[in-house]
Amino acid sequence: MNDSIFTKIIKREIPADIIYEDSDVIAFNDISPKAPVHILVVPKKQIPTINDANDEDAFLLGKVILTASKIAKMKGIDERGYRVIVNCNQEGGQSVYHIHFHLIGGKQLGWSPD
Ligand code: DGP
Predict the structure, then answer these.
(1) CATH of the domain at 66
(2) Which of 38, 56, 104, 105 gives a 20 to 30 Å CA spacing to 71?
(3) Is 38 known to be catalytic?
(4) Does residue 111 belong to any structural domain of this protein?
(5) What is the pLDDT of residues 42-100, one digit of tens each?
C-alpha cells in the first residue's frame, strides 16, 4: 500500500499543524476547515476506510474517538458541543483513504448532510 497523505504527515514528509500525537494517534488541523474548530484525528495505522477495520482495530479506533473528546476539552468546546464524523467511500464523501475522524465545532452546527 502506498503511503497516504496522512501517513506522509505522520512521517513529517509534508507539513501539518499538529495538535496532538502519541504512539497510536495523531491529530492536526484540517487544511480546509468547515468550522472554527476542524481537526482530523487519525490512527497512525493506515486503514483505508472503516469497512477495512476489523476486530483487532477496536481498541485503536476507541482510542481515536476518546482522543477526539480530549481534544474537544483542550479546545474548550466540550460543554457547548461538537461533532465527530467519519466519512466512508464515495457517497460518504471520503477523499483521503486513511481512516480519520473529523472533530468539528466552535459554532452552531446544522444537521443536513448535503
Ligand atoms: P474526507 O473527505 O472525509 O476524506 O476528509 C479529508 C479531509 O482531509 C478534508 O477535509 C481535507 C483534509 N486534507 C486533505 N489533504 C490534507 C493535507 O494535506 N493536510 C491537511 N491538514 N488536511 C488535508
Answers:
(1) 3.30.428.10
(2) 56
(3) no
(4) no
(5) 999 999 999 999 999 999 999 999 999 999 999 999 999 999 999 999 999 999 999 99
